[in-house]
């Protein structure tokens, strides 16, 4: 029987509905880790205000103009603050993503084996796969952001090519490069099934960002946790979709 995207969506939705409390708990945990690490590692409030002002001044500039502006107009202290803010954002996001992806993939496998596990047990069971995911998700995140900085199409192709690499790395226990290579081959061989899921993930994240303003009345950290948790639930759904697809392709 042929595999269809609608069947995969339906199966993924049923899994998400049945495991909603566990998925939301993992999504909330990952969001909390991201926000807390970002708060700990970020520059001071004054430096963040200065960075915000610089970003406003650079709005609408090309990449070349931005680089020239930074070299000529930005002081070494401000450059250091920008660098620290970038590292804090990247590291905190990476930590949250690793916890989320490792936890969700472990949850799926435990449920598939008929094991009813608490969140603590899921996180504990996921610990062995987390080191395998760190470098993989770091490379994926950097390349995806570079693709977005250039055009949407490169980022979309990168997301499709490596979409199943975390699943392959955890399920088959292979290294980063082999997981990416196998994912690329598998994804483009079944692009009609992978592309809709990836596109839905990107569009859902964009739509979610449009509603960030609705959280402006809340404390910034609380709104960041809420936004992060909702974003993580979307990512979890796509992981479930891709895991289901991967398992069907290997029946």
TrEMBL record:
Q: Where is the signal peptide?
A: none
Could you tell me the membrane topology recorded for this protein?
Answer: Multi-pass membrane protein
Q: Which Pfam families match?
A: UPF0259
What family does this belong to? Answer: Belongs to the UPF0259 family.
Which HAMAP family would you find in this protein's record?
UPF0259
- Is Lipoprotein among this UniProt entry's keywords? no
InterPro entries tied to this protein: UPF0259 (IPR009627)
Carries keyword Cell inner membrane?
A: no
Q: Where are the transmembrane segments?
A: 20-42, 82-110, 122-144, 150-170, 191-215, 221-243
Species annotation: Rahnella contaminans
Q: Which UniProt keywords apply?
A: Cell membrane, Membrane, Transmembrane, Transmembrane helix
Q: What subcellular compartments does it reside in?
A: Cell inner membrane; Cell membrane
What Gene Ontology cellular-component terms does the record carry?
plasma membrane
Q: What is this protein called?
A: UPF0259 membrane protein GW579_01605
Task: Name the domain of life this protein comes from.
Answer: Bacteria
